[in-house]
Amino acid sequence: MPTDEIVNPAADLSSKRWQLFQLFGPILGVILVIGTIALVTLYTYHTMRDGTIVLSRSLLRSQQRYITQEVSNYLSPAASTSAIARNVLNQADTAQDAASFMSIGRAILKNLSQVDSFYLADDTGRFWMMSRRKGHFEETSLQNDASGKSIYHYTLTDPDGRPLNSALFPNDDKYDPRDRPWYTGALHREDLVGKERIYWSDPYPHSSTHQFIITASIAFPSLGGRKFVFAINISLNQLTHFVNSLQVGHSGQAVIVDLDGRVIAGHNMAALETPGFDAANVHLNPDTQPVFLRALNIFRIRGDGAGVVHARGKDYVTIASAMPLAKQSWVLLLNAPESDFVSFTRKIQEQTIYFSLLIVGLASLLAFGLIYQGRRVSRLQSSLRFVGDEQHHENTLLLKVANTPGLLNPQQEIPVLSEVLVERSGSRRVSLWRLLPDNERLLCEDMFDAGRDAHAAGVELHKSSYPALFECLSETHILDIPDAEADERFQGFYRLVMQSLGSRRLLFWSIMEQHHPVGALMIEDPVNLEGIDRFVALASAVLSVRFTQQQKEEGSVEDLSLLKENTGANSQRGEKLRVLKGFLVNPEDGKKAVPEAGLYPRVPLMVLEFEEAYTSNTEVAKQMLKLVADLSGKIKKIAQESGLFSVQASGNRVVILGSCSQTFNTGDALRLADAAITIREACLAALTGVKTRLTFRIGLDVGPVIAAHLGMDPDVFNVWGEGLSVAELLAQSTPDGGQIQVSEQAYQGLRGYFLFRPRGDFYLPGSGVTRSYVLAGRR
Amino acid sequence: MAEKTISQQFGPVLELIEARPVFDESGLTAARYNLSLGPGECVFIECRDETQRSQFTDLCVGLLPIGDGKVKCLGLDWQQLEERRAWALRGRIGRFFSTNSLIDLYGTHINILWPRMHHTRTPTKQLVAEAVRLGIRFGLPGLPTQVPSRLSVLDRRRAEYVRAFLGGPDLLLLEDPVALDPKELYEAFLSELTAAREKGCAVLWLASDRSVWRDYWQDGMQIFRLGDDGLIDMRGV
């Protein structure tokens, strides 16, 4: 099965979606709550802000009306005094009119502080003026004397009109009132009616009083048929004081300007009474008064109205309106920062945000609580499902074991037992060991490697080599060895068995039959130990029955005398061997003993193949050569003692023929198999003592070969054929290193004398589906 | 690592339980079909009708609608499986079609690699290495890159073997996959089939002539005949 599928069909995504919802649902809920609160807060803020701005505009409008009224009142003496003058100064005698003018002027100056002075002129060039002078009043007239010379006549009076001082001065500068703008302007409006008749001059600084004044003048005829022009000067200094004293919001300002941006009254005119101050040329400053300037520009386009101007990073509420009672070109401008009015909404806003944060915090807490609870429930569900699955799994495994045919029949292999133990414990390898009747050896009946999905068997442990391990057989409980290499009892076992796999942890369980050990069960690197004892107990019960039965049967197996006759040092049937080039054990013992060239249908032969026998490291190569020399000597000795036909080394392989004759002799096969076991033990013993990756495999077959003599003087005896090919293939495909794999043909002849376990069915080209066996040991 | 269900680990790989195809939509008889195929098992079905063979394998991969019963693969019921998972499950099945299934729009190598590239994240390099190994095993010099029509009939069959065996499928559906000649290919096919079964792959082998699997058949293997009466158990016949 592919391990890197893009879509796993076994995984149901709906449960994952639910898990995701459980995780992200509350978070989404909190985000929604936060969003809703933010939206509501924003909406409230904008509503309140708009309402406040409307309110502030109304406030500013009423303030604007108030200012307009105040300014109108301020300038009202111009209209009323002009009307009075027009009606009073209507005598036939000019002298009486002049006296009346002075009386009216003095009375008004005494009562209206904003009025600075009065003028009166007629069409003959005569001029009268009433003005203040340091708490008194100054009456000035310009008339021709008897000689016709134009002379100023100054009289200083007290507030009641009593003369205090008088003087005469010639009109050296040829002053003529008829040239003055207030005179000509009034004459131009003579034909108009009502307030339109009044001429208003532009504001200008008065040279003698240092007042910033505006002059209103009106022309009217006298009874004598002359024309008079009456003018009143109103000081704007006090208007500036008034405007500056206005409170607009917390920090707002007001200013009166004309359409050109020239300031009439306002903060710009604060230095009005300073000598040298050019009051007639003060304009709105774009740097310091951008709000007024912007408001004036808007007024120029839209006329009267309120607005919001953004300047200096703030919003300002503005009101601009024309001054209807004064000159039409004057504009009243008011502004105030929006914050002056909406600051309280901001405070409310901040409080709302704090409350919202509190609510969000609580909601988050709740959400995290929900997530935590959801995760707990999920985990609980998962663990329940896991327990259910585990039980199902366990039941399935038990069923699998229980349904195995011949479970208690020792003649039948049951690889399922080790497979189930591996599956249940999650371990890397499980091995089942049987104590042989001599109580001196433990024979591996089955060893299942989970990583390679392969079974192996046949390794023997001798009590003499592993006494501490054999002592553990009397233990009645599971031994859990965290590090087998560090445990003295299992160090040897680690080197022999575990080191090649790289496992370290070992579970050891002695299999007992009526308090006597009959075997052992070993689990390497287990992962899932929960409830494993039940399985181990079950397996050991089954194995106990099988091993006990096996021991009983082994007492009554076939006569082993044939094996004894044909094996070991006592063998009388072995041929005498000679050693020549190319052979460890040479088949030639004189030309007559050498078989004829030809086809030999059933020859017992085996191939011993070494792996990892090559190294490029000189030191390692030296050690290996020593080991190889030792091994080759042992193999040769074993072959000679077993009476084998020939032993030929070729590369990393050793081909061993049990015999070479046209008639098959079972004894030859038995000697060969016995020699194979002895060679395996010798090799294992030799390899256990040294740290090397060298390993070996043995394949054994009884099959047809062709024998031939190659070359001349001397010739070399050589064999090849199907038997040799099969033996090579079996050697190459043994389940694990150090094992002997036997063909079905060889098994047929050897099964009564040796222990085997079937490895499985294999398809072999030319042979079809065939079986192979692993030679476990001697019976 | 893809997780396994209990059924995947221990249950049948392919299971037909009283499955009755909808008659109108198939060339398969609307009989009730029962079949259970465990991991590593090989089932032989003899059927002379090519259409029936093809329809039956379609039934096994959930492409043929059924009226009654269930068809399960790796413990998952095709009818209850959402489409995305169903196609992913089909990715675990290796199939050898009786008719030529390699398309000429692309090279043979794309035809071979495409299913694995579609269903898995296996690196292409690794896929190619495995395909080459299988190709050599089946007698190709490597991974063929020409369009399928430029290959000989035999090489096309080899390429189809590679595609079917590539990626270690859990189930092999083979429609008349092999002939006795050439012998090398026959043996290589049986060898790979055996290796796949050893790894737990279940095999459904449909053939028109039982002679092709007679040598491979062993006691205990299920053998059926597919005909107008449905699946008839031929063990012991």
Low-confidence stretches of chain A: 569-580
Radius of gyration of chain A: 64 Å
Task: Report the end-to-end length of chain A measured between terminal Cα atoms.
Answer: 41 Å
Tell me which oligomeric state these chains represent. Answer: heterodimer
User: Per DSSP, what share of the residues of chain A sits in E-state strands of 2 or more residues?
Assistant: 25-35%
What percent of residues of chain B adopt helix (DSSP H or I)? 25-40%
The CATH architecture of the largest domain in chain B can be given as 3-Layer(aba) Sandwich
Run of helices and strands of chain B: HEEEHEEHEHHHEHEHEE
Helix count of chain A equals 15
Give the N-to-C terminal Cα separation of chain B: 44 Å
CATH homologous superfamily annotation of one domain in chain A: Nucleotide cyclase, GGDEF domain
Tell me which protein chains meet in the greatest interface and how many residues each side has. A-B, 28 and 41 residues
Overall residue-averaged pLDDT value of chain A:
82
Structurally, the number of domains of chain B stands at: 2
**General form of chain B:** globular
The count of β-strands of chain B is 10
Structure, explained:
The complex is a heterodimer of chains A (779) and B (237). Chain A has 779 residues and is an alpha+beta fold. In chain A, the strands form four sheets. In chain A, strands 1, 2, 3, 4, 5, 6, 7, 8 and 9 form a nine-stranded antiparallel sheet that branches. In chain A, strands 22, 23, 24, 25, 26, 27, 28, 29 and 30 form a nine-stranded mixed sheet that branches. The longest helix of chain A has 76 residues, at 13-88. The two termini of chain A are 41 Å apart. Chain B has helices spanning 6-10, 50-60, 83-90, 108-119, 124-137, 153-165, 183-198, 211-214; strands spanning 14-21, 33-37, 42-46, 66-73, 76-77, 93-96, 171-175, 202-207, 222-227, 230-233. In chain B, helix 4 (108-119) crosses helix 5. Chain B has two domains: 1-92 and 170-177 and 200-237, Rossmann fold (3-Layer(aba) Sandwich); 96-168, no CATH class. Chain B is an alpha/beta fold. Chain B has eight helices and ten strands. Classes of the chains: A alpha+beta (779), B alpha/beta (237). Chain A binds chain B through residues 1-13, 389, 392-393, 396, 400, 453, 760-766, 768-769, and chain B through 1-6, 8-10, 74, 76, 81, 84-89, 91-92, 116, 118-122, 167-170, 187-188, 190-191, 193-194, 198-199, 215-216, 218.
